[in-house]
Write a structure and sequence with these properties.
This protein is mainly alpha-helical and 146 residues long. It has one domain (6-136). The chain is 73% helix and 0% strand. The protein starts with 5 loop residues before the first helix and ends in a 10-residue tail after the last helix.
């Protein structure tokens, strides 16, 4: 029986529930003055859920591969079962610290991408505002006096 890696499964579930909550409250979130924040936060949740969810699915896949080499039902591996493929699969399961730390590294990576998105949206908004002011002729900078 495969043990479900709960520490890798809770973050994507919580992220998904928060994303659903944000989408349900669409009138309040994406149409508010904090639109850039909500778009960036939604992107953060999606990227974080994908990173940690993929780590959880890889963990489950490795445990499934490991169970292929289990010949008896005692959950004890005999010398006959300990083949080279089993040892390689066990090494994948034991020696992959990165997969277990995706809960934390996913926060960092998702945060970087979301911050970049926020800055791009902020820049686009500033650019549009400057263009509107130029069209109306209300800007005070870059006017040439003849």
């Amino acid at each position: 029986m495969i043990e479900f890696p709960s520490f890798l499964c809770y973050p994507p579930l919580i992220s998904g529930l928060l994303l659903i909550l944000i989408l349900v409250a669409n009138k309040w979130t994406f149409k508010s003055t904090f639109r850039k924040f909500w778009i960036s936060f939604s992107q953060f949740l999606i990227i974080y859920a994908l990173i940690v969810g993929m780590a959880a699915s890889i963990d489950i896949k490795i445990k499934e591969d490991l169970e292929k080499y289990e010949l008896n039902a005692e959950n004890i591996y005999t010398e006959e079962e300990a083949a080279i493929l089993y040892e390689e699969t066990m090494d994948k399961l034991i020696n992959d610290v990165g997969r277990n730390f995706t809960v934390f590294t996913g926060l960092f990576i998702s945060g970087i991408f979301s911050f970049i998105t926020y800055l791009v949206l902020w820049g686009i908004e500033k650019y549009k505002r400057l263009k509107e002011e130029e069209c109306r002729g209300t800007t005070t900078h870059n006017k040439s006096y003849m």
